[in-house]
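Consider this pair:
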Amino acid sequence: MYPCVILPTFWTRRRPRGSERVHATYDHPTPIDQDGTLPDLLRSLEEVRGLGRVLVTVATTDPSIEHEAEDRVKGILADFPEIDTLVIGGAEMGSLHRRMEQLEFADLIGGVSLCGYGAVRNVGLIAAAVLGSETVVFVDDDQIITDPAFLGTALEGIGERTASGKVILAKSGFYTDEAGDYHAKDNAPWSDVFWRQNDFYNQALAAITAPPRIRPSSLAFGGCLALHRDMYCNVSFDPWVARGEDIDYVINARMHGGDVFLDGEWPIVHKPPTIAGTARQFRQDVYRFIYEHRKLEFSKSQVDLRQVTPESLMPYPGQFVSSSINWRARATALLRAVASKERGEYFNIARTAVSEASTYARVNCEHYFAFQRRWPILMDRLWEDIALKSLFTGERRVDRSAITGRFPVIRPD
């Protein structure tokens, strides 16, 4: 059986308002009046053998454009009638959240939403569980698939044991450019002397060319990621991590006794739009890495978790989740403020963002562990849930004008 493909897509206003507060920040959301990269991905998906259902989760930077974004996505999908798609937007989320309330999981709703990278991926996992998918494959909307056997390759090794006895339940491919190069551009300026993120990333990716083909990894790529039911129904994405939720998933899997493997023969072309500046992304990385460090430290107090250390994640992201991350982030922000055109933004990061990120991490990292402990129970209850499955498969329609559907409460035996 071929896997269920989950396709997260992210949208923003026609004209971004610089001073406007948004409810979620993404690297390069598509303006609502453009098609973005989604049509190119869909054209490549048409050539993939064994393609089954595609779940499309529609996330936005602003709640006021949710319905408009959903209509935009459906309009694009209408040009690809051969692809069996299910769009998950606000109405579907309303039904899902009501079902979670009825099953007494209202406390988890905040981590299952169309707001934030981790929460959006959790929505896709729940929809896949409702449909009874044994395996899922995440593909992002800025990717291009060049191999018709892409999904066949995705399943190779899944469920099998390695020579060391580990079961492969999560496997990542890797990103390349159109020329097939998987290296990140290592042209860091002098101001990145304490950062050099791409350099450590490239060191970690050196494993791609070395045997064995499929090996445990400290890296994962959310736009080319295969998860077996026994993994995704037991380990969730972290809704509180700012970005890099794919690499964070490696940490989550390890904490719970598993691994994410890297397949050196499973590439996908990555074609992200050009980003004008780097300060906003750097700010999110500061939040992300400080949060990860706090998360690793907090996990030491949890007796039911396997300990994950920065050393075990070397060279990447280990260099950025150690105790040095605070001073490295502040020093890099100051140096970039001197060398970059985004001077004010970087000074502000050095002045306030590092301490604010530390506060955010201290307040929120324990939320993930509470959320994660309930996740397997939630997924077990929602696996092939009759009420939601009939809605998702089209047997029962969502009332988008009122959203007043009711489901009977299912009591445990």
